[in-house]
Amino acid sequence: MKKTVLMAAVFVAMLFGASGQGWAASLEANIDVSSQTMTVRYGLSVYRWSVSTARTGYFTPRGNYRPQRTARMWYSRKYHMSPMPYSVFFHGGYAIHGTGAVRQLGRPASHGCVRLHTANAAAFYSMVREVGFGNTRIVVSN
């Protein structure tokens, strides 16, 4: 009897484990530097937000990335302890994060990071934390 119950439990665990991975939500953020927008696809939902990427003299790296780490609040040691709320780091010190400089959104204004309205950064941060780094893709292109 014990053996039958154990085998049934293993079967159920395998069944739910396999289906859980297949059903895992995916998250994709496409950052278009030329239009200064970020389009987020999260399951069936699509969001489009204005961003600020690198201003003249600075660079936002292009390519395909996965999140490397997150921080609910980060302070840039490189740029005078500037606050970076809801940071999702995707390439070394480059991150998608909130900003208080909302008037600058929609045009290049950063030192290379991707700046978002703080409410949108909080939403994106939560999505990344929910689906996990492995199910999140960040694409930065022209």
Shape: globular
Largest sheet entry: 5 strands, mixed
Which regions are unreliable across 5 or more consecutive residues at pLDDT < 50? 2-22
Order of adjacent strands in the largest pleated sheet: 3-2-1-9-4
What is the terminal separation in angstroms? 63 Å
Q: Which strand-content bin applies to the residues?
A: 35-45%
Number of strand segments: 9
Average predicted local confidence, pLDDT: 88
Q: Give the topology string: H per helix, E per strand.
A: HEEEEEEEEHE
User: What is the number of helical segments per DSSP (H or I, 4+ residues)?
Assistant: 2
- Which radius of gyration do the C-alpha atoms yield? 19 Å
State the helical fraction.
10-25%
Question: What structural category arises from helix and sheet content?
Answer: alpha+beta
Describe the structure.
- The protein has 142 residues and is of the alpha+beta class.
- 25% of the residues lie in helices and 39% in strands.
- The strands form two sheets. It has a five-stranded mixed β-sheet, covered by helices on one side.
- A hairpin with a 5-residue loop joins strand 5 (69-76) and strand 6.
- 27% of the residues are buried.
